Amino acid sequence: MLHAENLFSYYGKSPILQDVSFSLKAGEFLSVLGRNGVGKTTLLKTIMGLTDRCEGRLEFDGADISGRSTPERARLGIGYIPQGREIIPRFTVEENIIMGCYARTDGKREIPDYLFEMFPILREFLTRRGGDLSGGQQQQLAIARALAMDPKILILDEPTEGIQPNIVRQIEDAIVHLNRERGLAVILVEQNIPFARKASDRFVVLDKGAVAMAGHKDELTDAVVEKHMTF
Ligand SMILES: Nc1ncnc2c1ncn2[C@@H]1O[C@H](COP(=O)(O)OP(=O)(O)OP(=O)(O)O)[C@@H](O)[C@H]1O
């Protein structure tokens, strides 16, 4: 479904990602791990076409998307939830979600009901301004907005960072549900190793912009964590 080969990605003249390759099949869950500043966010931005320049091959559903704009990649079915969530604070919860519906290619504009089953608080706060929600609720809203596009793959950047524990659980459960019950492929940047072990099929560890290790979740041993993720 998503295939990256020998990716080099740049901010200005600095190559941040260096020769990164990985593949993701339909319905698979991949965690992207590594210490701070190793290029995890940059990898997600590269998939969305949000870095200054990228070399290498990037295919989605068999088509080369490296020349496509970010909105085109979204319309093809790549749902991206960035680290800062980027909901529109002055828009209501409903308006924020409807913005996602407008990226749909099948013309449907109504909000899918399962979003509210997953995150009931969004139905309750439908007319509240997005900016007035708590951080965790905003994260739920950002996920709902991305899902309203009806994506085939969901890309999430540390979705539970800085969020109160009771909402962390809801968000983690929702991500697992979307993958296992609704068949969405997931790429997740995560610092929480127990959750990465529980939720993912495979993982990649980045170090200094390159893939230091990749494997099945069973290979994500304490020794690997110690070597690549402790400070
Ligand atoms: N817009 C930018 N312009 C120039 N350099 C950048 C930009 N964004 C990130 N970088 C640099 O790219 C490198 C990788 O950053 P990135 O945010 O991808 O790391 P990360 O692994 O996601 O880190 P964290 O876990 O702290 O979020 C860092 O050295 C960072 O300073």
Automatic annotation (TrEMBL):
User: What organism is this sequence from?
Assistant: Brevirhabdus pacifica
InterPro entries given for it?
AAA+_ATPase, ABC_transporter-like_ATP-bd, ABC_transptr_urea_ATP-bd_UrtE, BCAA_Transport_ATP-bd_LivF, P-loop_NTPase
Which SUPFAM superfamilies does this one have?
P-loop containing nucleoside triphosphate hydrolases
Example GO biological process: L-amino acid transport
Q: Please report the name of this protein according to its UniProt entry.
A: Urea ABC transporter ATP-binding subunit UrtE
Please provide the record's keywords in A-Z order. Amino-acid transport, ATP-binding, Nucleotide-binding, Transport
Which PROSITE patterns is this protein grouped with?
Answer: ABC_TRANSPORTER_2
Q: Does the keyword DNA repair apply?
A: no
Provide the ABC transporter domain boundaries.
2-227
Per the record, the similarity remark reads: Belongs to the ABC transporter superfamily.
Keyword Transport tagged: yes
> Which NCBIfam families does the record cross-reference, listed alphabetically?
urea_trans_UrtE
